[in-house]
Amino acid sequence: MSKFNRGRAQTRGASTVTYEGGAAVTRDRRSELVLLAVVNMVGEQTFYETADERDDRFRTLVHEVAVEDGDWTARFVGWLRGEAQMRSASLVAAAEAVYARLAAGLHGDNRRIIDAACQRADEPGELLAYWIGQHGRAVPKPVKRGLADAVRRLYTERSLLKYDTAGHGFRFADVLELVHAAPHPDKPWQGELFRHALDRRHGRDTTPPEPLLTLRARAELTALPVAERRAVLERPDATERLARAGMTWEALAGWLQGPMDATAWQAVLPSMGYMAALRNLRNLDEAGVPDAVAERLAARLADPDEVARSRQFPYRFLSAYRAAPSQRWGHALDRALTAATDNIPELPGRTLVLVDTSGSMTCRVSARSAMRHVDVGALFGVALAHRGCAVDLVGFASKHFTHRLKPRGGSVLRDIEAFCARIGEVGHGTETVAALRAAYDGHDRVVIVSDMQAFTDWSGGRSHAVSDAIPAHVPMFGVNTTGYAPASIDTTRPRRYEIGGFSDKLFTMVGLLSAGGGRAAWPWEEPPAGATAAP
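Above: the chain's sequence. Below: its structure in token form.
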């Protein structure tokens, strides 16, 4: 782990400096792990850390905490994959936690940790691939048993069609053989499914057995000559037939061996998942899908129940809004974003929201995303301002600007874009203390959205910390978008909090912390009476 935080080793909880030299502190192990985990895309370069340095720091923290407390780790991994919706980070955390615990001679909780990280049918294979890539082909029994538990929960006909493809290094059969799950299915039909997965992997009879109706329906479609396939889409029962065969839009495109035109999209849209539809708005426009069809999809996208079930990160709606070339999706996406941020509390009194627009915040959330950390900050700040009755929204870098929003009831997405248009207007530094001092005017609380790497403030001939920039009795909330080890806000002090993540759950955290209270509880725990959730 020699790359971990090289040249910056500090005792946790001690005073240190940010990457830009400003006054900072380090957190205790568990707090640092949770905050890094909820923003860690794994293998991604950030402004101040290389991908290797960041991944090594994450693994080191997991090792330390997992050896200390296996039960805490198991619940943390389950929450990270479920509520926090961090897929890669939870898989890495589970594998590394069990590796460290076995090396330390600890055997309880390991099976549960592995199982907790797997919530999608391709994830047992991904976790297995990670383990073998990092720790060799000798897979310990607790890992096998945890993966077997996940396999029996997750492997279905539809998941076999979607995820058991040649593009995956570990096919369903490979996992089944290694973890010995095939002889012990949970459900009567699952035994047939497991046997079929093994047969098709090893080139034996690939005809789906009678009980596997979805696989048989797909086989029937696949058997059609390519020249006859497009005609299926013209039939009145096209949508039902595609759905019965578990046909995703990706599978349909490959099956047709031709372009996805408007007819193809109309046939598959009713059975498409929410995320798939959200990510294909541009394709629907370019294919010329009729307005009547688009209106039905827009109503689905805007439906609060659909939004809640989809569990999308709020920034996904901003990304879709920017990607879709037409205006017919704008209102629906605005309503969807409003529903996705419904957990934002209506805070009493006056709130000052500062959004960091410095150079480091313009890095992308991940290599595969067009979203930047500053976009996430702008979304949070604008959404909070729309929800609150009295919010002053300020952008800051080398200097600061006050951003006036349109009257309540306007478009959240348009206000986000208007704020983002001002990025670079006040330079590219991170003068957090100066911005706080200039903008604070008796507010009841302050929310700072930033990567928390403030510059040194030497006003008055001495260094000043972010935590001291406003009166001690005023609550300060840091929404950390990146999770670096040093942070500007000293959370060991009263009324100084730090939270992180990309999901709507961070809004819930603000509300819980705003209520005040005694001992903190972790987000996956039920807080005792009078307690708040841990940052």
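The first helix runs from residue 29 to 37.
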